[in-house]
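User: For my dataset I need records formatted as: sequence, then structure tokens, nothing else. Please produce one.
Assistant:
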Amino acid sequence: MSYQIIDGKAISGQIKEECRIKAEQYREQGIEITLAVVQVGSDPASSVYVRNKKRACEECGIKSLSFELPIETTEKELLTLIEKLNADTSVNGILVQLPLPEQIDEDKVIQAIDMKKDVDGFHPMSAGALCTGQKGFVSCTPAGIIELLKRSGIEIAGKECVVIGRSNIVGKPAALLLLRENGTVTVCHSRTKNLKEITRRADILVAAIGKPKFITADYVKEGAAVIDVGIHRNENGKLCGDVDFDSVAPKCSAITPVPGGVGPMTIAMLMSNCIASVDLSREIC
């Protein structure tokens, strides 16, 4: 069957343009949206992500403040900086680039960020708000998955949705968002029995398992929409996802490529969260 390639680059471009227009409207009201980005150490992958986030801020008319701390920074020093940024009324969002060096407790750092500035959506109170249907920030990759489906004309309501993966950053929030959109949701993980039987029921299959090309055609229902969250390098150094694209795509109605699918959406939704922070900060307690 012919399949639709879900173009994350194009959709993320639309979202960033919408953010740019909104940021301009806020500036006309005298509000400049500011994101503080904190990086500890100079991990090459983290540096690339941070650079991409700063570039996206420029494209969207969002001011970015950069804090590049040495690798030997203590937990106390980092928490002191976060406290300072929490108190700074000119800062709308705080993003601490993960992973952090081993001397720093990531959970403690995430919990130290003011929920009203938690544009990554990782704070336990943000997760709790998502669970209970309250207003709050949603982590960027799961929010991006929902936008990919909606903007590609893929109906979620009433559909059988299967999420493979139960991480706090992708799997769990993706399942909750699909549920919020009235999907019927099953979450699978490393202890799931008869995985293929479950995934073959899915009208919408979200693969966030962290294993390259794990999902082959025999995991997929004819006509399913497949969202591939994984990103890996194969033995030839070429990027691939959790889904074996070549075998799966012919069975699908729609599928995300790697690269160019979910990846660009994460930063676009971060920009969207920064814009939303102006109103959300008034609405969440």
